[in-house]
Every structure is written in structure tokens, then in C-alpha cells.
TrEMBL record:
<feature type="transmembrane region" description="Helical">
    <location>
        <begin position="12"/>
        <end position="37"/>
    </location>
</feature>
<keyword id="KW-0812">Transmembrane</keyword>
<dbReference type="InterPro" id="IPR021354">
    <property type="entry name" value="DUF2975"/>
</dbReference>
<feature type="transmembrane region" description="Helical">
    <location>
        <begin position="102"/>
        <end position="120"/>
    </location>
</feature>
<keyword id="KW-1133">Transmembrane helix</keyword>
<feature type="transmembrane region" description="Helical">
    <location>
        <begin position="140"/>
        <end position="162"/>
    </location>
</feature>
<protein>
    <recommendedName>
        <fullName>DUF2975 domain-containing protein</fullName>
    </recommendedName>
</protein>
<feature type="transmembrane region" description="Helical">
    <location>
        <begin position="174"/>
        <end position="193"/>
    </location>
</feature>
<keyword id="KW-0472">Membrane</keyword>
<dbReference type="Pfam" id="PF11188">
    <property type="entry name" value="DUF2975"/>
</dbReference>
Amino acid sequence: MKLGWSRTDSNALTGLLGLAFAIEGLLGVLIPALHIAGLIGARATREVGVTDLAQPLAASGGLTGSGGMTGGGVMTLSAAESATLTVADPSLGQRVLLDLPALFNAVPILLGLYLLFLVARTLSTGDPFEPRNPRRIFGISILIVIGSLGDGLLTALTNHFLVVGTPLEEHVPFSWHISFLPLGVAAVVAALAQAFRVGVRLREDTEGLV
């Protein structure tokens, strides 16, 4: 039940995971937060699906009324089926909507990297069948599902709230796309967690016979 895995291998893997965690924290959390705060150039574009758009449209405002957020820069919409929504000088509310999907995506990625880091640390002993590893791996599969489904839903919601109350609204339908590839990956990871669970049980049974 032992692996030919040295401490150097473990240190290299955990170092790479730590670097990935830092990069994702920078790109997925810090930069979007700075965009929202207006401390660096705001994110101003979003790819959206459109219908019945023969020529570019422009509109101002959005999110007026019961939403509690007002105004903002002029938005333009151009293309045929897939369009680029551009917000000139976005308001705070629009900056939140533009960067919220990126912030959301960063959370399951960071948590997944942390769980993978914990699993990698157990490899330094050459024994991956640490009792907590099956739960950690299964947790990664759950995070993949949350990230996949939540990303599409949150993108659809923020697209809607960006254009609601403007002439662009009728051309940007509420559309939630689900990708089945990440769900398939999550199923494979869940199966791997079950394999680790069996390995833990076999190790415990073997140790009980000694």
C-alpha cells in the first residue's frame, strides 16, 4: 500500500499547488475586487447571447427602481448571435455584476486546490490512503459541480441585471448553459474518492491482521 514517492516529489507537488493557489487568489479574487472598488481599470465587457439584433444598440442606465442600484455608463451591444456587451464608465453596481462571476468561480477553485494540497501532503509518507483523503477528494468533486452549475447560473443572472430596464433587455434573453464535461469530471473524481475509501478500508483490515 506504499508508493514510490519521495519527500522531494511531495515538496515539488505542494509547491506547485501553492503557486496555483496564489495565482488564482490574485487573478480570481484580488484583481476582481480591485475592479469593483474602482482602484484599477474596471472590467467593461461581457460576452452575452442575443436575439434579433440587426445592428449595434446603445443604452444608458440599467438597474433602476426596485433593485436599489442606479445609473451607470452607456452600454453598447453588437454582433449577431453572440454579442459583446460593453459598459462605458460602469457604476459600482455594474462593476459588481461584471466581476461577480469571476469572484464566485475563484472560491471553489481555491477550496479545491487547498483540499488537493492536503492530499498531496500525505504523499510524503508514501501512503495516500490516509483516512481523511477520501472525504477530501469527494469534496473536490462537489466543488467541481458547484463551480460548473453556479458559474452558468450566476452569469445568466448578472447578464439579466445588467440590461434590465434598458432597450437592450429584449435582445439579451435569460440563458443558463450547463456544460456536462465538468459534471463528468466530477463523477470521475467521486469514483476516485470511492476507490480511496476502499483502499483505506483494506489498509485498516490488513493492519488489524498484523
